[in-house]
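Rotation project, supervised by the postdoc (A.L.). Task for the rotation student: set up a whole-complex structure prediction and record inputs and outputs verbatim in this book. Inputs entered:
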Amino acid sequence: EAGVAQSPRYKIIEKRQSVAFWCNPISGHATLYWYQQILGQGPKLLIQFQNNGVVDDSQLPKDRFSAERLKGVDSTLKIQPAKLEDSAVYLCASSLGGTNTDTQYFGPGTRLTVL
Amino acid sequence: EDQVTQSPEALRLQEGESSSLNCSYTVSGLRGLFWYRQDPGKGPEFLFTLYSAGEEKEKERLKATLTKKESFLHITAPKPEDSATYLCAVQAVYSGGGADGLTFGKGTHLIIQP
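Outputs recorded:
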């Protein structure tokens, strides 16, 4: 079974530029998450989708971050404009989705460096 | 606010030297406690889910246990390939909206020397 796919794996941009990350979840997984992992810390949830609807975006900095999941499969996360403090690894995870506790499976992440 | 604290931050062991990693948590209502392993440059890899106090799960040299306030990851006779960062996370009881993101600790960086 193929895992969660993310691209690009690495991205370097100047501050105030924009950037977009792409995620393809495990086939059949209804729930998709984006996490931000700053060096030396654990992942922090940014946004959760159930199919193509947003379930939780309470920790997403909405003045500069946006995300969408059109058609309930792939998802993109965008930052515009980027700040130095956005340098981090952006992880996508997916789960089957349901009333019981589901395992979240993570992709390899996109490492963003903002100069 | 849900909180997870892991200790120690880093641990260096000799091959074969058993030890335990600690995860202390506060959560409004626990649905599940998760352990993940993360290798450099990779995403977290799922290890265990624990649901209730007293529960234990094992996988090869790893054993996870859960109490009402903390979880332990016991590593028995570790090998160099067990070197990684071990992350603990909690998932809170449904708030009704279906939000079930994980709250992670900072992790324990484990090094096993040959």
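Student's summary: The CA atoms of residues 21 and 41 of chain B lie 22 Å apart.
Supervisor addendum: The longest strand of chain B covers residues 30-38.
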